[in-house]
């Protein structure tokens, strides 16, 4: 990347992602609640469902087999709303499926099996880039994000920054709220659990 790194204002947030919807839809709804166009999300320990033959608005079946259930250990995603209001997401994470197929993908259409707590950084405008430099009051600065990828990839396939001091960034997000350092510390603890 050449030239100056773009800068924008943002804020840290906590929210509950709706369960049972495709991940893409739950994240879209969260961005709308936050009045944001782009967000970096950190999600830990969430049960998931792989229901590839069901439409995204179809209810979750009453009986589920082990082939469809799993657990997200940790997941970091950058989500942006496109010009039609649909969510585009990229991410890195660690997950497992209960049937033992470690190569099975986690996709934007994977569903949360129940509502899930999430922390993140939101910005009002549409921005690109997956490595964010968070700045706050009194010289506070941390890096959050991952090397760019398409879709959701395993942690073993990516370089991740989770509250570290790396100066490399695609975007600088200035969050002037006095609570920014404390909220960022909570997000970092979540990622390290």
UniProtKB/TrEMBL annotation:
The protein depicted here goes by the name: Uncharacterized protein
Origin organism is Thalassobius vesicularis
């Amino acid at each position: 990347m050449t030239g100056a790194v773009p800068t924008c204002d943002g804020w840290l947030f906590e929210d509950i992602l709706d369960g049972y919807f495709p991940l893409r839809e739950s994240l879209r709804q969260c961005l709308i609640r936050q009045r944001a166009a782009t967000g970096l999300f950190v999600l830990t320990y969430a049960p998931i469902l792989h229901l590839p033959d069901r439409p995204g608005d179809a209810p979750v079946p009453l009986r589920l087999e082990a082939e469809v259930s799993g657990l997200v250990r940790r997941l970091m995603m950058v989500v942006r709303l496109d010009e039609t209001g649909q969510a585009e997401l990229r991410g890195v994470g660690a997950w497992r499926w209960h049937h033992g197929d470690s190569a099975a993908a986690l996709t934007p259409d994977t569903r949360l099996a129940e509502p899930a707590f999430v922390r993140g950084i939101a910005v009002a405008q549409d921005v690109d880039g997956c490595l964010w430099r968070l700045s706050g009051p009194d010289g506070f600065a941390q890096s959050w994000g991952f090397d760019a990828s398409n879709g959701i990839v395993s942690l073993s396939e990516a370089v991740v920054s989770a509250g570290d001091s790396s100066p490399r960034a695609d975007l600088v997000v200035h969050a002037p709220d006095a609570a920014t350092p404390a909220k960022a510390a909570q997000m970092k603890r979540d990622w390290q659990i």
